Here is the input.
Amino acid sequence: MEYILKDIKIGVNNKIYLKDPESTPLGKRIVQDGIRLISESGFENFTFRKLGKRIKSNESSIYRYFENKHKFLVYLTSWYWGWKEYQLVFATNSIENTENKLLTAIEILTKPVERDSTFGHIDEVALNQIIINESSKSFLTKEVDAENKDGYFLIYKRLVGRLSEMIKAVDPGYKFPKSLASMVIEGSLHQYFLIDHFTSITDCNEKVLPPDYFKNLVQNVLKIENNGR
Amino acid sequence: MEYILKDIKIGVNNKIYLKDPESTPLGKRIVQDGIRLISESGFENFTFRKLGKRIKSNESSIYRYFENKHKFLVYLTSWYWGWKEYQLVFATNSIENTENKLLTAIEILTKPVERDSTFGHIDEVALNQIIINESSKSFLTKEVDAENKDGYFLIYKRLVGRLSEMIKAVDPGYKFPKSLASMVIEGSLHQYFLIDHFTSITDCNEKVLPPDYFKNLVQNVLKIENNGR
DNA sequence: TAAAAATAATAGTATTACTATTATTTTAAC
DNA sequence: GTTAAAATAATAGTAATACTATTATTTTTA
Here is the structure.
């Protein structure tokens, strides 16, 4: 994917970090290798000490960017959804036909992630693995309401809102646009998880991908004629 | 809900525990207060030491039942899905009409959980809260493939399989029965989470409940006529 | 009543998730 | 080009976690 604008920056709520990691080379290394480390060994086994060792920096220096590893995960998920939102707006903005617009949106949100060279220090494919395997842990906590109040999940909710509006544009009478939108986004992550680990309870695989399932689903729910797209 | 058979026991894979907690009073207290403690303070803040204190037993005694708190969570989720499977089979077994059968199944699987007096030491409502807020953590780990091989998630997968068969019975031509079944079950948990924490991205609430959304969804996807049920 | 099994008590360990302090290096301002 | 400020690194320390191991005590059963 290529961008017309240079030097795009994904805007993450600045309450999530102590110091913007995009503002320094060390910050970028923290994000870059943090993504690698978490995607390799999982969020539970990830510590700032290990990350410090890996980037040949000090644990204490990482703490000057992020309060703790939970906020680091919130940062990564927020960045990811900001990036997806960008792609979504970019790809659908000029589409007039509401059905095409919606189907394109679903395609963007559910297709396998590819590397995006615009953001040099972020490996989006590895980050997507983190989103699939770890992102629910960012909100499945006892602190979710407080953090939600502080705007930690704004980008994610805004993205669901955008998809929901597109659903409404296609079928203003449909009663559950928000639930359907949230389910497409969250459900897609889950289907990818099933492909990797519980193949017996999904119909998706290397050939039939989540976009096929979700486009078919939404077409049927909203009674869109399948015109062969 | 009442059961015809007395002394039903939900069969949990015995690799999950070291000693069957249903076999002793201490084991039952571990499960009973374990459920309360996790639902009150969350899985991250839960420790066997705290549970020991609460039930006035010793940390080391709890370790004789469960290897660690992760396996305890796997046990609880496995018990929960076993219980749901029981309800599902019980409620749908005698229904001949495939559409009614499927809609009843969805109702059972997505409706708010009520206390079941059959299992005295288990507070199903609190357990349901754990399932909503913590159960994904039981499989979102680096050990998932090994544990899956050992049968830790069998009951859950069997339940999805049952729902998927009912979908197939209604519409043998539908291409994604397994994905749809897994999405109804997992998506329902997510919708309840949204009702509690992210109300702006769901259409469900105290009046419009997940069963309404999911029955409508499946009816539309499989082109079932809504006959007013 | 003795033996076995279950439970409880105690102690100990490596790791985690930090905080605090000080030292060193890098950068920016004049 | 020096100085001050900011950033980074090094070191040490702490309470809690997630256990293991050993021994003591209580309960069950044969």
